[in-house]
Design a protein that fits this description.
Blueprint: H1 8-14, E1 28-29, E2 38-39, H2 51-57, E3 59-60, E4 67-69, E5 73-75, H3 78-87, E6 114-118, H4 124-144, E7 149-151, E8 168-173, E9 180-181, E10 193-197, H5 209-220, H6 270-280, E11 292-295, E12 328-329, E13 338-357, E14 365-371, E15 376-382, E16 389-408, E17 418-425, E18 436-439, E19 469-470, E20 479-497, E21 506-512, E22 521-527, E23 534-553, E24 563-564, E25 566-570
Parallel strand pairs: 6-7, 6-8, 8-10
Antiparallel strand pairs: 1-2, 3-4, 4-5, 9-10, 11-13, 12-17, 13-16, 13-17, 14-15, 14-16, 18-20, 19-24, 20-23, 20-25, 21-22, 21-23
């Protein structure tokens, strides 16, 4: 049987399966009307450069001859650059599905053995910073997907593009046209490099070196820039993508300068996690691995292991040894309480935390707290503690930050609070996250209040195009937003998040009737005279393939607009 041939650029593009993924590979348009979002295949600009003009304007690495497009995407040679250029004018010419088994992602064996070296050419302190930031960035992806990045220190002194003992090399460059650039899974070994410019060690605020590497590791896993889905001028790459999830302006793969909403550091979003899990399977689920850590103070009496950094509390190790490699400890002569916190970057639902103290002296008294948007709220109040490891289960909370507030250190050194690890989990799966959202209409003006917002994993109560679905102006009520699970799901609990500045007064929650051959919607819950921005709806076990929120009356201030921010669906 004749086998379809595929060019290198076609193969490379098809691995750019983004997460919300970059969402994954798409440019989504938003308009008033019903149904899911669709790719924007309209013109990007009035003037199109000739290939010769495009080639002259494209940065080329002086040592390797590799062309760099869109900031950090490598094109191996002129032929590949030409194929990329030609694809810019062919919307929809390629999709991931079109190449079937030729998708350029790591296979089931490779994904668990993504070995790398970090060149000693970075120099002492910079080498240590890259080793640490790479480990933390890798942990973030490993929490979401069944993958394994492995640093091989023995190869650091010979960390070159020709080293056959690692899958890829991490090396320094200087004065090039990017802060960092990576590669995709189908690149051959000489091109599998993660190159980091010296400018990456300067002030990247509000981003961090770890956040930058989260983004670059996304490329190494096969993800593409999410901004190519927005059709936003120079940030548009091409229309050759396959969508794993709806468009995500907050995605770790979305550049802030390309209309991205991630104005702080680059963190994985819920949709990033869903998209990468669709490619590689579920990860370890520890949400804390995705976050940045900080503390009220830190004990340091020298460099390296002599500094008990807050980064140790979410480095993925439950080792309870007391030292600077594993523990955070507050500074000398500071009054208690002292705290260490993990900032996830985005709101998540959490109902379990694991706290690992130091075997050299566990904190006797502490509070485990979460940030509710305006104040710290305790989920656990511990006194008389003697356990090195404790698991705290609590009612689900929505938060972007969790901290341990230490009130009393160990029995032998009560002035020092020592914490080796904090892990955060949501042990109940939100079935809505994997569903396809659509609506009877959507309001679009200065931003689109898309139906994809109701299951983007951001349980916000704020009104806005990045958080809410709203029906179109002038559309007659009732108006609806649907979730299609793509198959039968059984659940007992539904959580609705609406806007504090305009929750609907009347709505119904409906499910699709699977028993009727003709289908039809059946009302499960009826809400009248609502004044709450968040509501919980319980029932006996329901099995269905679709769920609908039918809004009959908007807010008191604007009764013609039904606003829903998030729908969560749980088995129990």
């Amino acid at each position: 049987m004749e086998r379809m041939q595929m060019s290198r650029t076609e193969s490379k593009r098809n691995i750019w399966v983004s997460a919300r993924l970059m969402a994954i590979l798409a440019s989504v348009g938003c308009g008033a009307g019903m149904a899911p979002e669709a790719p924007d295949e309209g013109p990007v600009g009035a003037h199109r450069l000739s290939f010769e003009e495009f080639e002259r304007s494209t940065y080329r690495e002086p040592e390797t001859g590799i062309y760099i497009v869109d900031g950090d995407m490598p094109m191996s040679d002129l032929e590949e650059l030409r194929e990329y250029y030609d694809g810019l004018s062919k919307p929809g010419a390629l999709t991931v599905h079109a190449v079937g088994s030729a998708n350029a992602v790591w296979n089931s064996t490779q994904k668990l053995n993504l070995t790398y070296c970090v060149s000693t050419g970075f120099g002492g302190s910079r080498h240590a910073r890259i080793v640490d930031a790479m480990a933390r960035a890798a942990n973030a992806w490993e929490s979401a997907a069944n993958i394994n990045f492995i640093h091989v220190p023995a190869e650091d002194s010979a960390c070159t593009a020709t080293n056959p003992n690692v899958v890829f090399d991490v090396r320094p460059v200087s004065g090039l046209g990017y802060v960092a650039r990576a590669f995709f899974p189908n690149d051959i070994r000489p091109y599998r490099n993660l190159l980091i410019d010296s400018s990456a060690f300067e002030n990247l605020a509000p981003q961090t070196l770890t956040g930058l590497l989260r983004h670059e590791l996304g490329h190494i896993l096969g993800l593409r820039h999410e901004s190519t889905r927005s059709g936003s001028g120079a940030c548009f790459e091409d229309s050759n993508w396959r969508a794993l999830t709806p468009y995500d302006s907050d995605s770790v793969m979305h550049s802030p300068q390309c209309m991205g909403a991630n104005t702080a550091d680059l963190h994985l979003t819920q949709r990033d996690r869903i998209g990468i899990r669709a490619l590689y399977g579920a990860g370890n689920g520890n949400l804390a691995l995705m976050g940045n850590s900080s503390a009220s103070s830190t004990y340091c009496y020298g460099p390296g292991s002599n500094c008990y950094s807050p980064d140790r509390v979410n480095d993925g190790s439950r080792d309870s040894t007391l030292n600077g490699h594993h523990s955070w400890t507050n500074a000398d002569n500071v009054g208690l309480p002292q705290w260490v916190q993990v900032d996830l970057g985005h709101p998540y639902v959490i109902n379990q935390a694991v706290v690992v103290g130091s075997s050299g002296g566990v904190p006797q008294s502490y509070l485990l707290e979460y940030w509710n948007g305006s104040a710290w709220v305790a989920t656990a109040n511990v006194a008389g503690n003697t356990q090195v490891q404790r698991t705290h289960d609590f009612a689900p909370v929505v938060t972007s930050r969790v901290r341990l507030l230490g009130r009393l250190g160990s029995a032998t050194q009560p002035g020092y609070v020592r914490v080796n690890e904090i892990e955060l989990y949501n042990t109940h799966e939100n079935l809505a996250l994997g569903a396809a959202a659509s609506a009877s209409s959507s309001f679009c003006s200065l931003g689109c209040y898309s139906p994809s917002r109701v299951n983007d994993g951001i349980p916000s109560l704020e009104l806005g195009p990045n958080t809410s679905w709203t029906n179109a102006a002038g559309a007659a009520l009732p108006q609806w937003v649907d979730l299609d699970f793509g198959g039968l799901r059984t659940f007992r609990r539904i959580e609705l998040y609406m806007s504090t500045s305009g929750a609907p007064q009347a709505l119904s929650i409906q499910v699709w009737n699977e028993l009727n051959v003709l289908g039809g919607w059946v009302t499960l819950h009826v809400v009248r005279d609502n004044v709450h921005a968040r509501t919980t709806h319980l029932s006996s076990a329901i099995t269905t393939s679709k769920l609908r929120i039918l809004g009959q009356l908007g807010s008191v201030e604007q009764p013609g607009y039904v606003r829903i921010n998030e729908v969560e669906v749980y088995e129990n």
